[in-house]
Amino acid sequence: GATYAISTSYAIFLLAFSVQLAVSQSRNHFIRFACSQLVTERLDPLGTPGIVSPHVHQIVGGTVVGSSFDIQMSADSPMQSTCTTCRWKEDASNYWTSVLYFKHQNGSYLRVPQVPPNYTGSPNGGIGLFYIRPPEGNQKVTAFPKGFRMIVGDPSLRNKTFVDPNSSLGRALTFRCWDETYNGDPNLPAPGTGSDTIELPNKLCAGGIRSNIYFPSCWNGKDLDPPDHSSHMAYPNGELDSGGHFWFSGECPASHPIRVPRILMEVSWDTRQFNNMWPSKTNQPFVFSQGDPTGYGQHADYIFGWKGDSLQRAMDNCWSYPNCKELTDQSSEVQNSCTLKSRVDEVVEGKHINALPGCNPIQAGPSPATMGPCPASTRTSTLLTN
């Protein structure tokens, strides 16, 4: 894990970005940090509030309501967290994605572990996060308001849904195939650029696979969480260049005029233990927990939970990576001590399982996935009360 977490190329990328920031601190900055694993379970307060969700998620961030990632969260829930797995103590938000599994030739599944992002200490697995403001134009960035939530991506997708690959939407959700040495191309370009793909790589990635997930950064200024959890948000106008979303300064559309922080989520899947288990050189064996072997159904959820005006202060004043004088730093040990036990009584990781948890037969598309009949034993699981 420690070797995997160090990438010379990525250090060069961050250094170059920091140098550019030093030249123009008033216009261009970001905060970057990691959140260790909180819990892996079949709950989803946005998609299926109050009940066990259809597929497994890996979750980071605040504990909410004292002891659990709540199955039905109110606007005040994140503020009641007793701890957070994120580096900055003020961030009690929750972030989650579906989980990647390896499908063995014998038909069993094993959860692919995560490793922390480069140069973020030693958190336990989890997610890397950037909160970015545009690099040009000195554009005002407004922090999300209390109660804000959003989803990006559609778990049912099994095919491309856009025409222009250079559009904001076209490069919002991608994968990076890490080479064996973690050095040079394709590991140097900004996430979502270069040879990154919108589908799961259909080749062996000797060093692992990273999910690059950019949330939209333009808000309509009205809705905190519409029924679809996404229509209140949009990507900036214009086409991306070689710098991708990371360096993009497009204007927000008139329908969504409020520019909020651009969140980049990085999930590093440590697939190395499976390098010698591939069934063939052309048929990749990984599948997401919603039964998606394509990667087109990659998606992520966000519930805002920053305390007070801490995020606004950070976006206004922090440009000296990796530190932020406006925020309270937590050690990796403190981050890793904030964990929860799953409230769903089933095995989802740590051992081989015979089927993906829930009712998730593998569907490769190209049509969107549908919920079909499945054995009664896979339909529900017991929700523990403590």
TrEMBL record:
Chain intervals with Polar residues compositional bias: 377-386
Cross-referenced InterPro entries: DUF1996
Record's keyword annotation contains Signal: yes
Residues annotated as domain DUF1996: 44-306
Pfam families reported for this sequence: DUF1996
Domain of life of the source: Eukaryota
Leader sequence segment: 1-24
Region of interest called Disordered, as start-end residue ranges on this chain: 364-386
Keywords, alphabetical: Signal
This protein's name: DUF1996 domain-containing protein
Organism annotation: Ephemerocybe angulata
